[in-house]
Amino acid sequence: MDRTLVLLRHAKADRPNGVADEERPLTERGHADSAAAGVWLVKHGYVPDLVLCSPSKRTRQTWHSVAVALAQSKASHVRYDRVVYDGAADDLLSVVRSAEPEARVILLIGHNPALSYFSELLDPSGGNDSDGMRTCGIAVHQTSEDWAAMRTAKLIATHTARAE
């Protein structure tokens, strides 16, 4: 049974003076692009059973805007994980491997460069962008392996969500 892992880089964030990195909020465009990402996920059938999200303000805000588009779909379980904020690609793999085995679609919302490196780790021949994932970039991977055993996952789609 195939499983789908959707990687989503947080949307465009502001850099206000005196605000810690973890507390940086989304810009107006970031909120709009996040909503567009949610619409794209629904349109393509990538509605998550489980959301693994960095606890930073910009990733939480990205998730909340995506969730609005998913409101008519089934409810997603959300797990905020510090490792998704400050971990490397191998750490992200460990987070996904710890996912509930019954989850069919996982949405991982995180940061670069780890997210781009993770996508490449999962599918080195997937044609990943050499500049890495852009803000609100999406990489969809598919695997037939259980989450706990996952080593690779084919890159089947990419998209950069932008509000019209």
Report on the structure:
This protein has 164 residues and is α/β, with parallel strands linked by helices. The protein has a single domain, classed as Rossmann fold. Helices cover 32% and strands 21% of the residues. It contains 5 helices and 6 strands. The chain has helices at residues 28-43, 57-70, 82-86, 89-97, 114-122, and strands at 3-9, 50-53, 77-80, 105-110, 137-143, 154-160. A 6-stranded mixed beta sheet has the order 3-2-4-1-5-6, with helices on both faces. α2 links the parallel β2 and β3. The protein is globular, with a radius of gyration of 14 Å. It starts with a strand and ends with a strand.
The main β sheet shows up as:
6 strands, mixed
CATH architecture: 3-Layer(aba) Sandwich
Parts with pLDDT < 50 across at least 5 consecutive residues = none
Structural class estimated from helices and strands: alpha/beta
Chain-wise SSE layout:
Layout: E1 3-9, H1 28-43, E2 50-53, H2 57-70, E3 77-80, H3 82-86, H4 89-97, E4 105-110, H5 114-122, E5 137-143, E6 154-160
Parallel strand pairs: 1-4, 2-3, 2-4
Antiparallel strand pairs: 1-5, 5-6
Helix pairs in contact: 1-2, 4-5
